[in-house]
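re: ur question from the group chat, yeah i did fold both. here u go
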Amino acid sequence: MTGEHKRSSLIKRITNETKIQIALSLDGGPVSLAQSLFKDKDYSAEHAAQATSSQFISVNTGIGFLDHMLHALAKHGGWSVIIECVGDLHIDDHHSAEDTGIALGMAFKEALGHVRGIKRFGSGFAPLDEALSRAVIDMSNRPYAVVDLGLKREKIGDLSCEMIPHVLESFAQGAHVTMHVDCLRGFNDHHRAESAFKALAIAIREAISSNGTNDIPSTKGVLF
């Protein structure tokens, strides 16, 4: 990782089911979109929005609990991000949730660029009251995800619980990373899910941090 490379990206992904655009900076700072998908957008009025001296976060997928999870991922990962999704929620939450995960993974992959000078591997634990989750990630260029959250409810808010691990799997697919995320204990499904996203944020933040060299962290000599 060199100081010359700004780790940021702009992604648009449009299908017959969803329209998504994402502005992402892996190191925080300002981010912006040329034009919002929403008319007269007021970022300050959102439930999943936060602006500090080092980060700007705005997430609007149309699914409140998904917004909440991605807000936590960005906040604890040190990212600045704007995520906008207009999807076919009149059908159900599947396409919007899945496609947002894929598009965020694509934005992550583009922002990271060539894997050089970073630790590559990262792990994280995050508690939320009685719940405890663990995440381990490898910037491998091999998309693979094992996710076991042990959720019991049918839905949390308007997000189907079956879609929560699938969003993480979709992110891994788009980002071309290998990751294992599991909830070790806990009985509240909101806590179990949120602790998992926070653990993943911690793992990603470690994996993309500098290793003090400009080397490619692979015996193959190339990643991404």
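okk and heres the other one u asked abt
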Amino acid sequence: MQKNTSTLLQTYLQHQGSPFSDPGFSAPELQLSSLPPAAVPFKVWHALDDRERLGRAQGAFLALTQHLQLVGDDQSDLNPGSPVLLAQLGAARLRAQGLLGNMAAIMAALGLPLPPEEDTLGLVPFGASAFERKCRGYVVTREYGHWTDRAVRDLALLRAKYPA
């Protein structure tokens, strides 16, 4: 799954044109208020209890499934002749939904309450320019990769704590 996130980000950037497709493009300052960032100081992350750790990941992947749908819709409009990109975005959304389901099962097995499902997108600016939609897609695909990396670490920590 981690390899797929890197491939998705590279494919996404290649299809957006300059400056996104320029070598070395990176814009870490771009964020979306409706998508929680995966970055957290190590000490804070390490001190999270199981409920908080899984709850944050659950909320992030719920938001990511909604955002990946929006980005897929944007790209269907902006890049309709890019079936590889559209397929990768659809597959990412399905993987995020699968991980969301797996986390729900883990939380239930641990007796932890599931966070309520929310509409994390809220009001979507449908009049957003092509550049704004490309920026939004960049942030979503980047954060999808970061959250996937973090989920792998979270689940490894839980696996070590609760061996089968």
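fwiw on the second one: The mean pLDDT is 92. The chain is about 65% helix and 0% strand. idk if thats what u expected
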